[in-house]
Write a structure and sequence with these properties.
alpha/beta, binds coenzyme A, 15 helices
Amino acid sequence: MNWKEDYKRKVSKPEEAIRDIRDSQCVVMGHAAAAPRLIPQTLADHCEDYNDVLIFHMTTLGDNPCYQPRCYGHFRHVSNFLSANSREVVERREGDFFPAYFKDVPSMIGNDIPCDVAVFQTTPPNDEGYCSLGVSCDYAKAAIRAAKTVIVETNDKMPFTYGDDMIHVSQIDHIIPCSYPLQELILPAPGEVELAIGRHCASLVADGSTLQLGIGAIPDAVLQALADKNDLGIHSEMFSNGVMELMRKGVINGRRKTLHPGKAVVTFIMGTNELYDFVNENPNVEFYPVDYVNSPLVIAKNERMISINSCLEVDLQGQVASETIGMRQYSGIGGQVDFIRGASLAREGKAIIAMPSTAAGGTISRIKPFLTEGAAVSTSRNDVDYIVTEYGIARLKGRTLQHRAEDLIRIAHPDFRPALAEEYERRFHCTYTE
Ligand code: COA
């Protein structure tokens, strides 16, 4: 059948599409800036018609109407990466978290993560009937392959992007043509602390490096400090506006990349509409599924690969907690460990964890004798390489436990150094000297 006839036959209203969702089924939804909007709203409006439908998703920007307490019992949520609103759902015990690397999600879908229905947002079809997954490639293709029913919101505001991120009209059961703005991520301007961290990180970045930038306040501060570098490249799970700015200045051009030269490789982006316009039909940015982008073996093919991620706390052995505050699940592992391992395997690679030395308005040191009780170790002491705070750089790889403790105390906030030094002296039976 001609794809245009197929398309016409499949055009549905959200109310029609959700009739294919049954009690106790599992719905896998797109995430971040490409999270579908109409189906969640319609499901929430008709929540009384459903019982115990499991919804899997990752990061959500903005509101997901299915998170409202009145939907509980009708819908349950499960995720391996929490953001502000899904964290609340888990804290109310109306959903749960499961630990898993982001790169493993595509292979888990249809196996460990059941997938009866896939709900995603794409562009409208091009002349050949292909829709682009736009700003979020991630696990969409895996879910669309696994699902019995595929529902797609074809949004004319979604940028058409390149890479391995197309699906065909023939793979979709319900097509919902729509037009709504993408959710934006507006980051606050970096403060003095973040800028100092950015400068320390930049001192570790040689010209011709390929960068991965994690999530949170630090990455864009690092990018600001890289404006004088040359020939940088990107191979990153995600990026935001800072990468666009350095691409426009020619600082990021991918010229010396040893994998996908000339292309910024990513699985999803979150930023402002300016960033979404920038990636629209931009041949210099390519989106691939997360099991490819986040594979340590793929990452390692980038010579001079530098991963820059953030964390919540580090203990004096160099164990890094990035996703929990004690027993509280704050976010998820994402690709942190995969990029640390990939960068360590890469020729001339470096893996950086960068964080402010304190949290909670300066009242808590993020460098601690022990991780907070209940905290999960995200990056183990065997994987950790560089730790950076506004006070400097500690290189932990190859360092003994005693030297690690000394180096970490030196980059802790001065107010907390005496207490850390006391623990050092108790642990190593010798005096700590600055
Ligand atoms: N104890 C208590 N509170 C803490 C804390 C600690 N050790 N560390 C941070 N906090 C608080 C902060 O004060 C802040 O509170 P506020 O929102 O009230 O100001 C909040 O927790 C968030 O901390 P912050 O450091 O500002 O978070 P961020 O937005 O910069 O994100 C991570 C940092 C670590 C949560 C984020 O990078 C992450 O999820 N990393 C893991 C996944 C990953 O690295 N993915 C990328 C791989 S591609």
